[in-house]
Amino acid sequence: MAAEPELFLREAARRGFSELEIVVSHVERFRAEISGNTIKPVSAGSRTVYGLRGVIGRRVGGLSVSDLAVGVEDVLRDLERVVRNSPEDPHWPGFPPRIYRGNRAETYSREFDELGPEKAVELAGLIVEEALEEGRSVGADKTYVVNAYVELARINIRVVNTNGVDILEKCSMFSSGGGVKSVYSGVESTYHFSIGGRRVEENGLGERVRQAVSHTRLFANPSTPESGVYELVLTPRVFGEVLTYVVAPAVSGLNILEGRSPLRGRVGLNVFDERITIRDDPLLPLHYGSRSFDDEGVGVMAKTVFDKGVFKTPLTNYYVSRRLNTDATGNGFRGVPGVSTTPLPTNLVVEGGSGGLEEFVRDVRRGVVVYSTIGGWMSNFVAGQVYFTVTHGLLVESGSVKPVKSFVVAGSIFDWLGGKLVAVGSDSEANFNIVSPSIYVREAMVSGG
C-alpha cells in the first residue's frame, strides 16, 4: 500500500505534531552473485520505505515503515508514542526550510531505464571471463571468482516536511565487488576488487578484475616483515580507506561540536602539509556520492574542506549548522529513513600532486607499500591515530621487492599528511565516494614478525 506524504502531513497536524518530516525511499534492484565461477540466479525486487520524524514541543523521534497496510493513522499513532517518550532537545532548531542553491547534480544514467536482470548476468559473466583470461596471462594453474556480486539499482528519494521542503531525486547505482583466487604450483593467492558509481562502468570493472588477478601473482608466497620504522607508500585505494576512517569523521561538524574531533577549534588553522587540498564535491557527474540535495532536502554545494593544509570547512547537517551558527553545507545523510541525519561526505576528492606509485616505489630505500588492508575501522579518529592490518603489501629493501602480509601499520594522520609527508601522487582513482591518489610517507611504525 502506498501513501502520499500529504496524507501524513494532514493527519499529523490533526494529532498535534508541531513538525513532521517524511522521507520516501523507493529502490528497485537487480543483483547477480558469483561463487566458484558459477553465476547464481539473479535476485530482483523493489521496496518502498517511509521514514517519519515528528516533533512535539522539543521532543523529537522517528520510525521507519515499509508496510502501510495498517494505515496512516496507526503509523502516526506509533510515531506519537515514540516522540512523547523521547527526551527534550533544548537545542532543537526545527526541520530545515527550503534551501536551494541552484546546483543540480547528475545522479541518474539514462541507460538504467532499460537495465534489468539480464544486464546483471552479463556483467557477472564479464567478471568471470576477464578473471579467467587474466589468470591464463599471468600463468595461474587455476583462477576462480569467489563471493563476488554485481548490483544495479534505480532509486527515488523524496523529502517533505512541514517547513516547505518537497524535493524528489532520481538516482541510479552500479556496484560490484568480490574476490579472485588463483593457484600457482599448488599455492593459493587471493585478492579483492570493488567498484561503484551511478553509471555502469564495464571497462572499469574489467580493469579492476584483471588487476586483482594480476595481484594474486604479485602477492603469492608472502612473508611478514620485522617490526620497526619504515617508509610508507599507500595506494589510492588504501589512502581512500584512511580518509574514510580518520579524516571524514574528524571533519564532521557534529563530532567537532561534541568534542570528538581533533579538529575542534582549528578552523582556519594549518593542520596538514600545504600539498594537501581536499574537497567535498557532490556535483561530480554520476559519481557514487553525487546528490542535488541531502537527506533533509537541503541543497548541496561543492566546498573546500582543506585548502593547502588549512582546515576551512566542517561538514554539517541543518541541526549542527544552527548550533555552530554557520550555513548548512548539505551533508546531512542517514543510513535508514526515519533516523536523524549525521554529517557525512558526498564525494571526498584529494587534489593530486606529481609522480605516482611506480615512482614512489623506486624512491623507497627501506619501506612497505600497502595495497590492501583490514581493520581500518579500529583507527582512533578522535586522536587522529591510523591503525590497520596489511593483507597485501610489498617490502622494498636494498633494491629488492617481495610480497608481505599480516603486519600492523600505525601512525598519526597529522604526521602522515604533515611533516612526514614526502609526496602526493598524480595517480588518482575513484573508489566509491573517495577520489584519492597514492601518497608517500617518510616513516610509520610497523608491527610484524
Strand proportion: 35-45%
Task: Return the structural class.
Answer: alpha+beta
The percent range for helix content is 10-25%
**Biggest sheet character:** 7 strands, antiparallel
SSE layout and pairing:
Elements (H helix, E strand, L loop, with lengths): L4 H10 L4 E17 L2 E2 L3 E14 L2 E7 L6 H13 L32 H21 L4 E20 L4 E19 L2 E11 L4 H17 L9 E7 L1 H15 L2 H5 L20 E3 L22 E5 L2 E2 L6 H7 L7 E2 L8 E2 L4 E3 L6 H7 L2 E9 L10 E13 L2 E5 L2 E6 H4 L4 E4 L4 E3 L2 E3 L2 E9 L2
Parallel strand pairs: 8-15, 14-21
Antiparallel strand pairs: 1-2, 1-3, 1-5, 3-4, 5-6, 6-7, 8-22, 9-10, 9-14, 10-11, 12-13, 15-16, 16-17, 16-18, 18-22, 19-22, 20-21
Describe this structure in words.
- Strands 1, 2, 3, 4, 5, 6 and 7 form a 7-stranded antiparallel β-sheet that branches. This protein has a 6-stranded mixed β-sheet with strand order 11-10-9-14-21-20, covered by helices on one side. The protein has a 5-stranded mixed β-barrel with strand order 8-15-16-18-22.
- The chain contains 9 helices and 22 strands.
- By secondary structure, it is α+β, with helices and mostly antiparallel strands.
- Helix 3 packs parallel to helix 4.
- The mean pLDDT is 96.
- The relative contact order is 0.14.
- The protein has helices at residues 5-14, 72-84, 117-137, 202-218, 236-250, 253-257, 318-324, 357-363, 413-416, and strands at 19-35, 38-39, 43-56, 59-65, 142-161, 166-184, 187-197, 228-234, 278-280, 303-307, 310-311, 332-333, 342-343, 348-350, 366-374, 385-397, 400-404, 407-412, 421-424, 429-431, 434-436, 439-447.
- The longest helix has 21 residues, at 117-137.
